[in-house]
Amino acid sequence: MRRVLVVGISGAGKSTLARELERRLGLPFHEMDALHFGGPGWAVSATFAEDTARLAGTDRWIFDSLGYPEVRDLLWERADTIVWLDLPRRVVMRRVLLRSLRRSLLRERLFGGNREKWREWLRSDHPAWWAWSQYGARRAEIARRAGDARFAPLRVVRLRTPRAAAVWLGTQEPRRNGAG
């Protein structure tokens, strides 16, 4: 594994798993939302596609996203491994709700200095509503891509429970002596 794409719906644990893979494997991790949201008001970075293409053009990386539409194919074509967190909806929803609640209560700074605000909970693009409404479509999209000949010979690791994810992660060899 040298170019890893960790995919799943919002709240599945993509960033958490990607950070742990970074620690264990010594691959540089690039948080997709941090690249995408470049400023206040959730503004999209003007250089998002170029920045992502530059990073994806290197030999070693981890990204934590299916990929925004403008870079999705590029990431899937460059990846050698897809780690799919295909967790049950009840697990995802519990995680995304708790995460958004924590972020709102503690006013955590996120990408581009943004924060989740209580009034945003009513918007259809809020992570909780988005995860609920897009759960089936996102799973179908990932399954279609995982079987698409354009992206062969990708290694696809499909993890269907938090326990399976923990067990798989435990099999990933930690970095030794700075070697990656």
TrEMBL record:
This is Adenylate kinase. GO terms for molecular function: kinase activity. Gene3D superfamilies: P-loop containing nucleotide triphosphate hydrolases. Keywords: Kinase, Transferase. SUPFAM superfamilies: P-loop containing nucleoside triphosphate hydrolases (SSF52540). InterPro entries: Cytidylate_Kinase-2 (IPR052922), P-loop_NTPase (IPR027417). It comes from the Bacteria. PANTHER family: TOXIN, YALI0E33011P. Transmembrane segments: none annotated.
